[in-house]
């Protein structure tokens, strides 16, 4: 069966690919994930797949926090923005479509007069746009406590970014990699000055389990002949976890008060699925019990970004507001280091070309 989307249900019946195999441990993890997803039963954190962003952040005071969220104007990014501002945080929406982002801002302000929101333009598929965004943000002279790397594209037909990089890898990973690196000095300074732990959250996906045979095809990132829109998406989501894990390791070695974690938000029908909308609507008819609402989809991001129980927790992968074990590729330290070096060299070469 040709997979339409990588979700918990498909992983459970092992129908992602005739060539994809799972260890007994991975299969057990998947089975546990399905049970918790369907039942909505809370895990060790006290929350589960049925929990909403408002519920997991209830009574948390975020008024001292400044947050940047990419793609915060639609889908779970918008809900994350809404709930963070509800808890008092100052949120900067980094968005490619600033018109839509300002409309989202006004919609939030209509129901919350006290919401603190700014909108800045950011196209993650362009390193120049990332540079411009960071320059504009730093000129505002604001602190930065939390960075949520939320934006992404999915199942794109083969195309290259402005910098000549395969679009899903460029947008979902490389843009966020460069953005995070450029903002690290501000986050370090804020954490040191305020004593408040900084947090970086990378939105990944369970789709990270469905990628190319080598995990990351370093030597064929832009290869059109071997391109698979679904495996390329899985590759970019695997890269999100590897990036978070390697950055976490580096910051811990430095003794910096910043944590870095990755999350799977769940299966939610949003604009992210615009390249396969009709297929997804049909697919949803047969798998409706596995789908989350947008408020449920934003819960894990808000939990990992705000909850005090996660103080000091770093380099972990979360699903349904609980820690889960990611794939073997995702927990491979040497692969994470190789991706970091590859990404840094790629950014450097593109910046100087």
Please trace the helix and strand order, writing H or E for each element: HHHEHEHEHEHEHEHHHEEH
Percent helix among the residues? 40-55%
What assembly state would you assign to the polypeptide chains in this entry?
single chain
Radius of gyration: 19 Å
Gap between N and C termini, in Å? 43 Å
Biggest beta sheet attributes:
8 strands, mixed
Choose one word for the global shape: globular
Q: What is the helix tally?
A: 12
Low-confidence runs (pLDDT<50, min 5 residues)? 1-32, 272-277, 283-288
Sequence of strands across the biggest β-sheet: 3-2-1-4-5-6-7-8
Total E-strand runs: 8
The fraction of residues in strands falls at: 5-15%
The assigned structural class equals alpha/beta
Average pLDDT, to the nearest integer?
88
Keywords: Oxidoreductase
EC number: 1.1.1.-
Protein name: Oxidoreductase
Family: Belongs to the short-chain dehydrogenases/reductases (SDR) family.
